[in-house]
Amino acid sequence: MPKTPIILPIVRSKLWWALQSGLLLGLALICLIVMGWLAGALVVLVGGIYLWRSFKQLPSGMLYLLPQAEGPLGRWLLPQGDLDDALVVHCDYLMPWLIGLQVGQQRVWLWPDSVPPEEHRAVRRLFHSPGR
Questions:
Q1: Which of 94, 102, 86 minimizes the C-alpha distance to 125?
Q2: Residue 101 φ then ψ, to 5°
Q3: Inter-residue contact 72 to 65 (CB < 8 Å)
Q4: pLDDT tens per residue, the chain (132 residues)?
């Protein structure tokens, strides 16, 4: 009997944004203290642009995980409503709050606020191997 697919509506994580912004502001404060206000302002400007570009490049959309015996397959839902080709999915990082998936060649981090809690638990159950 085929298993039901796990449908992950992935959004950009605001938790990721807050953590990275905090690190950027801490670095800017250190530069401000050590090298002066010009260096601190430059760090905020360059780091802010890089952070904004990184945030916009985070994957978002619908990811369908198809559990199979040889390993799960993933499919991205395209904007036209079609499913993309099946991609092999590997779990590289599995912790209680953060899951790192390799979907084909793309890295997808599942933060607690980027996926609904029920689907987050389903993904953890899919990739968790008891006794390890």
A1: 94
A2: -115, 145
A3: yes
A4: 567 888 888 888 899 999 999 999 999 999 999 999 999 999 999 999 999 999 888 888 888 888 877 778 888 876 666 666 778 888 899 998 899 998 888 888 999 899 999 999 989 988 887 765
Contact 120, 99 (CB under 8 A): yes
- Nearest CA to 14 out of 118, 115, 92, 121 is that of 115
Per the structure block, which two tokens stand in for 11?
Answer: 């959004």
Look at phi and psi of residue 81 and say left if phi exceeds 0, alpha if psi is from -120 to 50, else beta.
Answer: left
Closest CA to 47 of 76, 74, 26, 78: 26
Q: What is the pTM of this model?
A: 0.75
Report CA-CA distances (Å) from 81 to 31, 42, 76, 78, 116. Answer: 47, 43, 10, 5, 21
